User: What shape does this take?
Amino acid sequence: MKPRLNCFEVVLPFKVPFTTSFGTQSERHALLFRLEADGVVAYSECVTDVGPHYSYEDNYTAIHIIREYLAKFIEDLPDPKVFLERSEAVKGHNMAKAAFEMLLWDYHSKLSGKPIHEYMSGSKGYADVGISIGMDKVEKVVARVGEAIQRGYRRVKVKIERGREHEILGAIREVYPEIPLTADANCDYRIKDIEILKSLDRYNLVYLEQPLDHDDLVDHAKLRKQISTPICLDESITSPDKARKAFEIGAADVVNIKPGRVGGFTNSLEIARIARDQGGHVWVGGMLETGIGRAFNVALASHSLVDYPGDTSPNDKYFEQDIVKNPFKMIDGRIKPNTGPGIGVDVDLDYLIKVSIKMTRIV
Ligand code: OSB
Ligand code: MG
Assistant: This one.
């Protein structure tokens, strides 16, 4: 039977708008893929958003690249590695590629009858969980940090931007001097701001995430030599090769791996291996995914190469009602990956259709 592959464009409002240095998101506007083949139904999520603000990709470039170039590479449902090799014909567009690479991981693990974390092998069976808190009035940020600690999160990350760093971090440290705290600047600084960045050393952060430009390694290496806070890279690490170079020139201590940003699970595992071999630390980030993307992230975050808590909060942090009927629960700051075949999510298809604004047949 020929496979059938559809793309659902869905809009799910957030409980709380999420503000970073690059803007505010009040809803998750996602591309979700549904593949039916050989009696298996597989899913994946493209982590792009409506605008090119986290990276150059957005929903419209992703769907264009997928339809015009990647669709023909997935028709015979190859192994994810084979798909990745074929898609080298397309430069960049990792988020578009990852949507299909991970769809193939879900499909092949479902065919094997195994949950995806077992199919990839090396899982500890649980993921340590941290929270990512967006910017807001400082009182609100401090209150959310308090709630997160109450709920048992294993580390707290807050968003900062140029001009608000001391206001936010100072207020948190005044109330919570000891909690494992990190800050994410989402590229808002340049190397000329080095004195401001050095002044963050007083907050005793576990690490500072992506202070400088989205594709920079060289200035991060310069900064890292002059600051005692460890440096974590997010946006700058788009491939295993970038990870190798980052550690070779001393640009990073820690990597935030988002499978969407790096082209999928195969590259994520490779980057984790490179980072850990170089003495670095690894955690799995998030892109405010629906329950579908979240299930992939949690499975990856349970891998034994991942040694720091990730941004993989339970579904109810984000949405009043998610599109899955079996949301994750966090117990003692940990989440267990689903035990059903593949990503193991029970998709609420009626609700998925209800929140869809468009459906496109891809294959
Ligand atoms: O930089 O990690 C980031 C969300 C959207 C875009 C970029 C980032 C984030 C987050 C949220 O920090 C992580 C999550 O809770 O999914
Ligand atoms: Mg980040």
